Each structure stands twice: as structure tokens, then as C-alpha cells.
Amino acid sequence: MQTVSNFNFAGKKALVRVDFNVPLNERFEITDDTRIKATIPTIQKILSDGGSAILMSHLGRPKDGPTEKYSLKHLVTPLSLVFGVKVKFATDCIGEDATSLAEALQPGEILLLENLRFYKEEEKGDEVFAQKLARLGNVWVNDAFGTAHRAHASTAVMGKFFTDKVAGYVMQAELENAQKILEYSERPFTAIMGGSKISDKILIIERLLDKVDNLIIGGGMTYTFSLAEGGKIGKSISEPDKVSLAKELIEKAKAKGVNLIMPVDNVCADDFSNNANRQTVNRGEIPDGWEGLDIGPESVKLFQDVIAKSKTILWNGPMGVFEFPNFAIGTNAIADAVVKATEENGAFSLIGGGDSASAVNNAGYGDRVSYVSTGGGALLEYMEGKVLPGVAALEA
Questions:
Q1: All residues at 6 or more sequence positions from 272 whose CB lies less than 8 Å from its CB, including other chains
Q2: Is 218 flagged in the annotation as binding?
Q3: Is the dihedral of CA 123, 62, 357, 281 positive or negative?
Q4: Does pLDDT of 364 surpass 70?
Q5: For 10-46, what is each residue's pLDDT tens digit?
Q6: Whole-prediction pTM
Q7: 296 known member of a binding site
Q8: Cβ distance 143 to 170 under 8 Å?
């Protein structure tokens, strides 16, 4: 796979697929610019080589064509500030405006195209649409690992129309760090899996059972495991139809000698709100009418002890409803434990995108762990062993 590091962009117009699907508030201001910051090294390398960058991305899930809420024009000013050059903007991603602006683009300049998903052809992986995009530049750079698991026009199909196909620094780092976890992990290796559903994590949990020493389970999926063990979960989130699956995973962990670690206590509430009444109960003893929203203090200590002794740590998914400050205590404590293991014990720690990445970044720990993935679903699928279309297109 060719990478940005070993490609000279002098005189080239690089069509760069970035992941600028960033959250905006009601005033269209960016509330988390992690994904934009991640692409800075790739874009700066193109410009410093003497090339120009044509940036293409999606934003949100527009349903019926152009929508003010999802226009990438809202990113022009912040991007101009980040790169120190006035970013040009095409009011379409194909067509006359995009073509004329791309043709006039000079070395050192940046052009941002309008939201790719204003065209349904993008998500359909339409070849004609991909070819129209491809005509705007003469080298394709894919730096959007977060969308690499989608066979969309700009993330995979475009590769057919370029001789020069290059992985950006984000793509390269995501793949290298995932490989480090999967193939070169130092032991003890601990995986921390959170989130609400076993069904979302089943494939990666099964694959990790062949690789880890410890598997910590937190978040909403623990209540399905509680059901499997005959516990009471009140009105906690669960997947009753996955109880047999939970039992299977418990048995598989035993058979493979993996230390499967569940919460021993839970913080539960009488309502799904930050200000609900709270109580801490033992695992499997949540009263009727109450729901578990976080791990309890004894679970925190148990998890922290395992993390402290680990040399490789993979964390994907929060321990509770971390959006509510009163139920973010468990998630924040795990973030703190992962940071300590990294800084004090030399552990390699990979935070697996999505909510766990947000939790780590919100706590100000983003630069104190080994790597924070921007991938989310793409990272999970890669670790499950699936072929990612966006990666395969770069290797073809």
C-alpha cells in the first residue's frame, strides 16, 4: 500500500477523502474537531510538497438532497483558520462549479467540495458518480478510515480510476495500531468492551477470546449477561433473545482460559435522567422499576486492578450512560486507569473510536493514551477480520 510518506505531491491535485462528519451545534459551530485535527498532517504534506488538496467528505445523513443543516460550507472558516490559507468552496461536489474551481486550483491551495451525500449515488457506490469525482484530480488519497467499511463511491469505487492511490496518515496509523493490538500485543492483554448491545460486539468479542488474557465487560450489555446468570435487572436495557448467546460466551471464555470480568455492583436509577434517584446494588439485584446506568464502586476497583497489571489495553464502549454526569463516574474512572497504565506502566493503549473516544477526549486524556481511533464501526469490522472496501481499494 502506497502511503503519503513515500509519495511526492509536487504539481499534483490530490483528491483527498477525509472524514469531516463532525458534530455541529444549532449555530453550525463545530463542537468536536478531533476528526479535522487528525487530517492536518496529511493535508500539510500535500501542500508542502507543492501540491494542492481537493477535500471531499460527507456530513450527517441528508435524506433528500442539499440541506442547509448538512452543508460543508459551515466548515470553510474553521478549516481556513486551521490551515492558515483561505479554503475555497465548491457549492457542488461534481458539475461546473467543482470542475472550474478544481481546474484553477494552484499549488498550496485547498478546495472543499460540498457534501458527497447530497447525491444518493455516493452511498450506492455508483461508478459514474465516482468517475465524475475522479476527474477533479490526478491522485486519490484516502484518509477516511472511519468510512473505510463502506463501499461508497468516494471511499472505495474511485480507486478504479486512479493509477496513483495513496493512504493518508490517519488511514496508515489506524491500520498500524490495529495490527499492533491484534498481532503484536504484549501480555497481559486486556480488552474492555462496553456499550449497550451484545449483538453489536459479538463478532469482535469472539475474535478477542482467542487473543486476550482478560475481557472486561461493562455498559448496558452486562444486563443481558446478568439475565444469563439468573439475575434480576429491573427495567435495565437488555437483549432477552441474546441470553443463550451470553451463556455461550461465558463458556467459551472458560474453555479458552480467558479471565471474563463482569461488574460486581451497579449504580441504578428510578428514571432515565441525570437527576434520578440513585442507589448502588450488587450485580443481579436491581429492583423492579429501577435500571442500571453505571458500574458501581467495587466494580471500578476490580476493573482498575486488572487494567493496572496490563501491558496491552483495547477499550471500546463506555461503562454506563456517560452522557449523564452522575452516571459517568465508572467510564471516567476506567479512562483514568487506562491513562495510568499507559504513563506509569508503559502499557500500549488503543481507544476504539465512538463513545469511548469521546469519553477519553472529553476527560482531556486524548494525548495521554497510546492511540485514539477515529474509526468506530470501521475499527470494529477490521478487528473482526472483515475486509474493508476502502482499504482493499488502496491495495488493488
A1: 291, 293, 321
A2: no
A3: negative
A4: yes
A5: 999 999 999 999 989 999 998 888 889 999 999 999 9
A6: 0.88
A7: no
A8: yes
